[in-house]
Amino acid sequence: MFVRQKDLERLEVPSQRILRLQRSLNDVQLALPEFPPQAATAYLCAVGTGAGVRVVAALHLHASRRLIFYLDDAGAVPRKKAGSLFSGGTQFVESMGFMLGELDFQHLTPADRSALWDSLPLKTGDAGASAGAGGQADLGDEKRRRVLENLGRFLASF
Fold first, then answer.
1. pLDDT band at residue 124, thresholds of 50, 70 and 90?
2. Which of 19, 67, 122, 158 has its CA 20 to 30 A from that of 7?
3. DSSP collapsed to 3 states, the chain
4. Residue-wise pLDDT tens digits, 3-40
5. How many CB atoms lie within 10 A of CB 72?
6. How far apart are CA 15 and CA 59, in angstroms?
7. Which pLDDT tens digit goes with each residue over 46-99?
8. Phi/psi zone of residue 3: left (φ > 0), alpha (ψ -120 to 50 degrees), beta?
9. Integer Cα distance of 20 and 118 in angstroms
């Protein structure tokens, strides 16, 4: 189960500790307590810790320019159990209407990983920053565009 972390404003971890990263392919209109209804982008990441792996879900609320973080209540788990926990995170985020896309973060060079991670609002806590503000973040936007095009073709074939 994922629990909101009201005191968490950003993920202050180096890109080397991010083991897996997904971003929503679509924005969803959400109505969360304490915030007006608005479009949001979702992120899901696995973070390596000294005790294992934590899975973090984050919502970037566009109009409020805020990040809302959810942590799994299982705490840090061994790497061999992280896959099932990540799957639970995917279900949690997708239950809100998001479609997640893999950013293939683990396959990027260390420099590209750092550039992408530094461009995301998750690390900086600056929810006003654009994830597509240039650099390697555009790789994810291009992948998002291709997936949506292919999804459209797939759905049109029925």
1. confident
2. 19
3. CEEECCCCCCCCCCHHHEEEEEEECCCEEECCCCCCCEEEEEEEEEEEECCEEEEEEEEEECCCCEEEEEEECCCCECHHHHHHHHHHHHHHHHCCCCCEEECCHHHCCHHHHHHHHHHCHHHHCCCCCCCCCCCCHHHHHHHHHHHHHHHHHHHHCC
4. 999 999 999 999 999 999 999 999 999 999 899 999 99
5. 21
6. 19
7. 999 988 999 999 999 999 999 999 998 888 888 888 888 999 999 999 999 999
8. beta
9. 15
User: pTM of this prediction?
Assistant: 0.78
Distance between CA atoms of 99 and 139, rounded to whole angstroms? 17
Q: How many domains does the chain have?
A: 1
Q: According to the model, what pLDDT value does residue 75 have?
A: 84
Domain that holds residue 108: 2-156
Residue 132 has which token pair?
């597509």
For tokens 């679509």, the residue is 26
Q: Which two tokens stand for residue 27?
A: 């924005």
Q: How far is the C-alpha of 144 from the C-alpha of 101, rounded, in Å? A: 7
